[in-house]
Design brief:
Layout lengths: L7 H21 L5 H25 L8 H26 L7 H13 L6 E7 L4 H12 L6 E7 L4 H10 L2 E4 L6 H16 L4 E6 L2 E3 L3 H5 L8 E5 L9 H5 L11 H13 L10 E4 H6 L10 H11 L3 E4 L5 E3 L5 H20 L12 H15 L1 H17 L8 H22 L8 H7 L2 H13 L19 E2 L1 H20 L8 H24 E2 L10 E11 L2 E10 L3 E6 L13 E7 L2 E10 L5 E11 L10 H14 L11 H13 L4 H11 L37
Parallel strand pairs: 1-2, 1-4, 2-3, 6-8
Antiparallel strand pairs: 4-7, 5-9, 6-7, 10-11, 12-13, 13-14, 14-17, 15-16, 16-17
C-alpha cells in the first residue's frame, strides 16, 4: 500500500485492523512456549523491516550539505540503533531457560548430606548504615544450610561495625585502602578466607541484599556440572524504585529491572550468555583462582567476571528464582548514578584487550550478546532527539521525518503498537507504555553525558556507590533534570502555537503537532518523577503477608489473617468479620505471622466492627531455636528482622496493572507533593531508626512485662493456630 493512493480514513482503518490482529496474537499465543515467541517475534521483525524500508526510501529529503538534509539522517542513524537493539532482543527472546528442576534436585541433594560443601558468604560494604547492614547480616545467619561462614568485607574501616560483627558472631575483614573498589575488596577476602576456611564456594552479597533461607540449598548442588563457574539469581526489591514511588505506582507497576531479570537474562541464558550482576550469586573458588581473582580494571566487576570465566570455558547459569531481596535506589540521584556506573562499566569492558570485542576465547554469539547490551545504553541519546525533534521543526523548519498522516497510520503506528504489545506479552505483562519509557527518559540526559565521557576518557573514573538508607522524609526536587523537562514542554507548546496551530498547516504539520503532544506528555510525567516524594523509614515499611492463622486475646481465640507486617507493627483482620472479638486498645494480642514464629502485640487500633486490628510488636518467640520469649526491644527487633527478611513476602507487584497505574498517575498530577510529607513524618515518629552508630544491646533475655505472656513451655499460640 502506498500513502499516495490511500485516503486518511483508509489508512486509519488499516492501522486499526493491524493492531487488532496483533492484539489477537497476544491473546491467543502463549509467551511461555518458544514456538509461539518465534511466531509472534517473526511477525514483528517483518513489520520492522517494512518500516525500515519505508523510512529509507520515502521519508528522507534529497541529500545535500544543508541542515535540512543532514538532520533527518542523523535522526535516522540513532533510530537505527534502537531498531537494531529491538531486532536482536526479539531473536534472543526465542530461547529461554528454566533451571527450577535443577534447583529442586540440588535442594534434595544438599538436604540428604550430613555436612554439605563449605560456603563463604561475603557481604560487601563501604558506607552503609547499621539499619541497612543488620537486615543482610541477620538474614544471612538464618540461611538454611549446614556449613557456611559469614564474612563482612568493610571497605569503610569502621570500628563500630567490627564490634557489631563480634556481637553477632560473624567474621570481620577490612584493609588499608580501597584499591580496586568492590573487586579489590572481594580479592582481599578471597586471600584471607583461603587461609582460614578455604570454602570451595563463595556467596557474594551486597550490603543491602538479604538472602532467603533456601538460597544455598537451591544453588550449591547445581555445581555438579563442571562447566558452571557461577550461578546468578535475580535481584528483587522490597521498596519501590524512584519512578514507581514518585508516580505513586508502586502497587501498579513493576520496577524497571524486572524485565531484565525475569525475561532478558533467562533468554540470554538460553543462548549461553547470561552474566553476573554483582550480588546474590555463588561462584566457585577454583574458578576465581583460574582467572586470577575478581576483576578490578572496571567499575562493573560483575559482567567483567562473567566474560573472564567465558574465556576459560566456564559459563554463568541464571537461576530465575527469588532467593534474595534488596533495597532499590531510594532517590532519583542514586538511581541515575547507579545506571551511569553500569553504562560506564559496560563500555569499559568492551574496550579491554581481553574483553568480548578484542579478546580471544569468545564465541560469535557471546560477542553479539555483549554488543546487544552495549546498544541498550546507546539507545538513550535517541530519546533526547525524540524530544528535540518537534522543537527543531517548529522553530527552524527542520523535520526529522518527512511523513504524511496517511503514511503514519500505514507504517509507523502499527509498528509501534506491535512493539508495545509484543514487549508486554513476552515479558508476562510487566511492560507498560508510558511508564516504561519514562523510566528510561529520566536518565537519558545523564547517561548520554556518561557515554560521551566514557568514549573520551573510559578509564580512571572513581567507583561511585549508590546511596542507600538516606533521610527521605521531605519533598526533594532534582532541579537540573526537572528544569530540562519543563523547558521541553514550554518550547514545544510555544513552537506549536507559533507554528502549525496558528497557521494553515499541511499534513506534515499535523504530524508534528501529534508528535509534539506526545513529547509534552512524556516530558510532563518525567518531570513529575523528578519531584521526589517523601518515603517512610525502612522500619515502617509494611509487607503484605496474607497468612491465615489464629489470634488469641483475653482467653478468646479466633481465626484471622495477618494482612501486613513491619518490624514494629502488624495489621490483622478476622476471617469471619461478623464475629467480633472482645478486645480493646491496650490489650495484648497473640498471633503467628510465620510458621514456628509467635508474636505478642499491644492493640493500637480497633475498627468499629472489631474485625480488624493494628498492633505494635512487643515480644516474640522463635520456636525453631528455643522456647524463650524475648521481650527486650533490641532482641525483639533482631528476631523480627531475621525472620521477616530471610522469608520476605513479595512486596512489589509481579506484573503491570494499567488502570491502577493511570489512576495513580492522575492522583499524582492533582495532589500537592507536600501532602505526603506529613504522612511520612508520622510514620517516622512511630519507629526508632538507629543511625550511623551502633550501641551494644544488653546481653541475655529481658522479660519486662512478661506477666501478660504465657509461660515459655506453652508457646504464644495454641498448636492449632499453625
Amino acid at each position: 500500500m502506498s500513502p499516495e493512493v490511500v485516503t486518511l480514513s483508509d489508512a486509519i482503518l488499516f492501522s486499526l485492523v493491524t493492531l487488532a490482529l496483533i492484539l489477537g496474537c497476544a491473546l491467543l499465543l502463549d509467551s511461555n512456549r518458544s514456538k509461539d515467541r518465534a511466531v509472534f517475534g517473526t511477525i514483528l521483525i517483518l513489520m520492522l523491516a517494512n518500516y525500515v524500508y519505508f523510512r529509507l526510501t520515502t521519508t528522507l529529503p534529497a541529500f545535500d550539505w544543508s541542515a535540512y538534509a543532514i538532520w533527518p539522517r542523523i535522526y535516522l542513524a540513532f533510530e537505527a540503533v534502537v531498531i537494531l537493539y529491538t531486532l536482536l532482543s526479539i531473536v534472543f527472546f526465542f530461547r529461554r531457560t528454566d533451571h527450577t528442576g535443577a534447583a529442586d534436585t540440588s535442594e534434595a541433594m544438599i538436604s540428604r548430606m550430613g555436612k554439605p560443601p563449605a560456603v563463604d558468604v561475603f557481604i560487601c560494604t563501604y558506607n552503609e548504615d547499621v539499619t541497612i547492614l543488620e537486615r543482610t547480616i541477620l538474614a544471612a545467619k538464618a540461611i538454611d544450610y549446614g556449613n557456611f561462614t559469614i564474612w563482612i568485607l568493610d571497605d569503610g574501616r569502621r570500628e563500630w561495625l567490627r564490634d557489631y560483627c563480634g556481637e553477632l558472631g560473624v567474621r570481620y575483614l577490612t584493609r588499608d585502602d580501597n584499591k580496586g573498589a568492590k573487586g579489590g575488596n572481594i580479592n582481599n577476602a578471597i586471600r584471607w578466607s583461603k587461609q582460614i576456611t578455604n570454602a570451595p564456594f563463595i556467596l557474594i552479597l551486597d550490603a543491602d541484599f538479604a538472602p532467603q533461607r533456601p538460597i544455598l540449598k537451591r544453588i550449591i548442588g547445581q555445581f555438579v556440572d563442571p562447566e558452571i563457574g557461577l550461578i546468578q539469581t535475580p535481584q528483587f526489591y522490597y521498596n519501590a524504585d524512584p519512578v514507581q514511588h514518585n508516580l505513586l505506582a508502586s502497587k501498579a507497576w513493576v520496577d524497571d529491572q524486572r524485565i531484565f531479570f525475569d525475561v532478558m537474562q533467562p533468554s540470554k541464558d538460553g543462548w549461553g550468555a547470561a552474566f553476573c550482576v554483582g550480588t546474590s550469586c555463588v561462584v566457585r573458588r577454583d574458578a576465581l583462582e583460574l582467572i586470577g581473582g575478581m576483576p578490578e580494571e572496571t567499575v562493573t566487576e560483575d559482567i567483567h567476571l562473567t566474560y573472564r570465566l567465558m574465556q576459560k570455558g566456564l559459563r554463568t547459569r541464571w537461576l530465575n528464582e527469588r532467593l534474595s531481596v534488596g533495597l532499590s535506589a531510594e532517590s532519583l540521584s542514586g538511581y541515575i548514578t547507579q545506571r551511569c556506573r553500569w553504562c560506564l562499566g559496560t563500555i569499559q569492558v568492551a574496550l579491554l584487550r581481553d574483553g568480548p570485542f578484542f579478546g580471544r576465547g569468545y564465541t560469535l554469539m557471546q560477542r553479539l550478546h555483549y554488543f546487544h547490551g552495549l546498544l541498550f545504553w546507546f539507545c538513550r541519546p535517541f530519546m533526547l532527539l525524540l524530544m528535540a525533534a518537534p522543537i527543531l521543526f517548529y522553530f527552524l523548519g527542520l523535520p526529522a521525518i518527512l511523513m504524511e498522516p496517511e503514511a503514519f497510520f500505514l507504517y509507523a503506528l502499527p509498528m509501534v503498537g506491535a512493539m508495545w504489545t509484543f514487549h508486554a506479552w513476552v515479558s508476562g505483562w510487566r511492560s507498560l507504555p508510558l511508564f516504561t519509557e519514562v523510566s528510561q527518559m529520566v536518565s537519558a540526559i545523564p547517561i548520554t553525558i556518561a557515554i560521551c565521557h566514557a568514549i573520551a576518557h573510559p578509564f580512571g573514573r572513581p567507583f561511585k556507590v549508590t546511596a542507600k538508607g538516606e533521610d527521605r522524609t521531605r519533598v526533594d526536587i532534582l532541579y537540573p533534570i526537572a528544569t530540562t523537562f519543563a523547558l521541553i514542554i514550554i518550547l514545544t507548546f510555544t513552537g506549536m502555537l507559533n507554528g502549525p496551530l496558528l497557521s494553515n498547516y499541511s499534513g506534515l504539520d499535523s504530524f508534528s503537532v501529534a508528535w509534539g503532544m506526545v513529547v509534552m506528555v512524556y516530558a510532563f510525567v518525567s518531570m513529575l518523577v523528578c519531584i521526589e516524594l517523601p518515603r517512610e523509614p525502612l522500619d515502617a515499611i509494611k509487607f503484605p503477608v496474607g497468612r491465615k492463622t489464629a489470634m488469641t486475646c483475653n482467653g478468646q481465640a479466633l481465626p484471622c489473617t495477618v494482612d501486613s507486617l513491619s518490624l514494629t507493627q502488624a495489621e490483622i483482620s478476622l476471617q469471619q468479620p461478623r464475629i467480633g472479638m472482645n478486645a480493646g486498645v491496650g490489650d495484648l494480642l497473640l498471633f503467628s505471622p510465620f510458621p514456628g514464629f509467635d508474636v505478642a502485640g499491644r492493640i493500637d487500633r480497633v475498627d468499629q466492627n472489631r474485625s480488624s486490628f493494628t498492633v505494635s510488636v512487643v515480644a516474640v518467640k522463635e520456636r525453631r531455636e528455643s522456647e524463650d520469649i524475648h521481650a527486650h526491644p533490641a532482641i525483639v527487633r533482631r528476631k523480627m528482622i531475621q525472620r521477616l527478611y530471610s522469608e520476605m513476602p513479595e512486596a512489589m507487584p509481579g506484573r503491570a496493572y494499567p488502570l491502577a497505574a493511570l489512576r495513580a498517575l492522575f492522583s499524582r498530577m492533582f495532589q500537592k507533593p507536600s501532602a505526603y510529607s506529613g504522612q511520612t513524618r508520622m510514620a517516622a515518629n512511630t519507629v526508632s531508626v538507629r543511625r550511623s552508630r551502633w550501641r551494644p544491646s544488653p546481653g541475655g533475655i529481658l522479660a519486662s512485662g512478661s506477666r501478660a505472656l504465657p509461660a515459655p513451655g506453652q508457646g504464644l499460640l495454641p498448636p492449632a493456630a499453625e
